[in-house]
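Sample pair:
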Amino acid sequence: MRGAAAGAEAIAARGAAQALFEAGGRRVLPATVQHAVRTAVESQAARLLTADAGKRLLESGGAAAALGESSVVRTLAAQSVRRAGRQLLRGVTAAAGAGALIDGGWALVSAAKRMRAGTMSGRQAALHVAREAGTGAAATAAGTAAAALLVALTGGIAAPAVFVVGGAASLGAKMGLDAWLGGAGGGVRAA
């Protein structure tokens, strides 16, 4: 669920990230590297999605070249970098809120069961819920930010690929945070 929230927010922030690409992100990486990264990401996303359905989604989602020629992108490119940055920040913040609710909610259910069973004190339960909500927020925000950064540095990427990148980066961030902090402590993992 957290990955879906990160992916959805990444898709919502895609237009702002494209505006940042048009405003200067295109000069960060050589065009050949941008194309290679876009192609690799879209190819892997198509593989992760069901074989035929994924390819159709990526094709209908608009390849990078088609997106670069659209009037929507030209309009977004005219936006100021400041407005695009605020839009991205709102998306990352919304993703963090969703991640906190999702992971905090699952941790609350787990902690309530463990408290009723007598295997967790109230203080331990509160710490568990706070930690899970915090790492969930950070992981979801990281997933959304990673997908937006990818678009800002490489240009237009099909929406399904942006969704997959946001979800995968969120999952990876959650697993890393759990490992760094010593495990989930309640059986709630980076699902």
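Confidence is low (pLDDT under 50) at residues 53-69, 184-191.
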